[in-house]
UniProtKB/TrEMBL annotation:
Record-linked Gene3D superfamilies: 3.30.420.40
UniProt-recorded name of the protein: Anhydro-N-acetylmuramic acid kinase
Organism: Roseovarius litorisediminis
Annotated residues for binding of ATP: G15, T16, S17, L18, D19, G20, V21, D22
Gene giving rise to this polypeptide: anmK
Family per record: Belongs to the anhydro-N-acetylmuramic acid kinase family.
Reaction(s) catalysed by this chain's protein: 1,6-anhydro-N-acetyl-beta-muramate + ATP + H2O = N-acetyl-D-muramate 6-phosphate + ADP + H(+)
The keyword Membrane is assigned to this record: no
UniProt-listed Enzyme Commission number(s): 2.7.1.170
């Protein structure tokens, strides 16, 4: 275990919406955030997205070599452009996630990345948690705890990530540490952008509903919304997590609707899932801070605002970067792993006891292309 030492760490995340790789630098000792540094984004081309999309749902033993090569090359390219990182946190690309079944599967080879970059790489963040009975996700909550302190919050706040899937973290920043009893409650809320994107691609040949423009013209079909909310997942007590495609069938619920009504209804479903999730929080948060691409969808944001009686704001309102929060999370978590500090606990993943996940791969050769 390293002693508490602040360092610049570089984190990288390739999210479930398959849009690209985010990378960001954070100065941290794994507990306190001292500052945020450079960040960048490397989109996947349409051809790369196609390969990754076809690899979704595959498990170890199945052939994903082309997808792996894309993920590996994209990360090497983007991460080699940074200077001064002592450590890299490499999430990889989730292909499948079945917490109560076959486990979780992220592709990306941290040992090869450490060789290519010439710096230690922390990876395989989710396995240890699952081995101890956890969901393996979400993992950003330990970083959200540090963010709540960084923004100076004294009362509970909540972070909502609207990515392909939605996830919510309720934080009580007055607790001593993120693993302390009652400091964190976190779980996946339900589908967020993934079904909207799938609908837009199938019906309009567009990757997403930019600005909620299509949904804005439609009306939410109440019958379909009620069928969606009858899904047992919403009643289940957290922690709980989801595969990107766990709600793939919900597209069928809007199959008969016009494009606008279908988009409005799927957007309404994503919002309703968040409202259900808020019911599970120990107390209403002071504010709901929204991160991830869905914060750019004004229809989705408005649906949340009209139903919640505390402010719903993008994380930019407190000086954070909503496009980079997940990449920053894996930078921060990498330092926690290097120090042997926990990265998940019963309140975030349902793991039996707080656990420090992740594997550290150090470069064997002294080759250095960064720093
Ligand atoms: N201007 C916009 N209008 C509407 N939706 C948007 C806009 N910008 C981004 N999005 C949505 O956000 C998605 C990308 O979100 P994000 O990058 O947070 O996902 P991710 O990190 O891949 O997912 P996850 O957090 O589940 O791993 C896009 O696919 C799109 O659906
Ligand atoms: C298995 C997996 O990759 N899950 C992702 C996904 O995307 C959002 C949500 O579902 C969350 O559970 C998680 O990512 C974030 C970064 C997390 O672990 O906190």
């Amino acid at each position: 275990m390293l002693k508490a030492e602040r360092m610049w760490a570089l984190g990288a995340m390739s999210g479930t919406s398959l849009d690209g790789v985010d990378a960001a630098m954070v100065e941290t000792d794994g507990e306190v955030i001292f500052g945020f540094g450079d960040s960048t984004y490397r989109p996947y081309s349409a051809q790369e997205q196609g390969v990754l999309g076809r690899a979704l749902g595959k498990w170890p033993g199945e052939n994903v070599s082309e997808a792996l090569r894309i993920v590996q090359t994209a990360h090497e390219d983007v991460l080699s452009g940074f200077d001064g990182a002592a450590l890299v946190g490499f999430h990889g690309q989730t292909l499948a996630h079945e917490p109560r079944g076959r486990g979780t599967y992220q592709i990306g080879d941290g040992a090869a990345l450490a060789e290519a970059l010439g710096i230690p790489v922390v990876w395989d963040f989710r396995s240890a948690d699952m081995e101890l009975g956890g969901e393996g996700a979400p993992l950003a909550p330990f970083f959200h705890f540090a963010c709540a302190r960084w923004i100076g919050a004294e009362a509970p706040v909540a972070f909502l990530n609207l990515g392909g899937v939605g996830n919510l973290t309720w934080v009580d920043p007055s607790r001593r540490a993120p693993e302390s009893d009652g400091a964190l409650l976190a779980f996946d809320t339900g589908p967020a952008n993934a079904p909207i994107n799938d609908l837009m691609m199938a019906r309009c040949g567009q990757p997403y509903d930019k600005g909620g423009a299509v949904a804005r013209k439609g009306t939410v079909a109440q019958g379909a919304l009620e069928l969606f909310l009858a899904e047992p997942y919403f009643m289940r007590m957290p922690p709980k997590s989801l595969d990107r495609d766990a709600f793939k069938d919900m597209i069928g619920l809007v199959g008969e609707l016009s494009d606008a009504d279908a988009a409005a209804t799927l957007t309404g479903m994503s919002a309703a899932a968040v409202l259900q999730a808020m019911e599970h929080c120990p107390s209403p948060p002071e504010r709901l801070l929204v991160t991830g691409g869905g914060r750019h969808n004004p229809v989705l944001m408005e649906m949340l605002r009209v139903s919640l009686d505390f402010p719903v704001e993008p994380v930019e309102s407190v000086g954070l970067d909503g496009d980079m929060l997940e990449a920053q999370a894996f930078a921060h978590l990498a330092v926690r792993v290097a120090r042997g500090l926990p990265t998940s606990c019963p309140g975030t993943t349902g793991v039996r006891a707080a656990v420090s996940g992740g594997t550290i791969s150090r470069p064997q050769q002294s080759k250095r292309i960064a720093g």
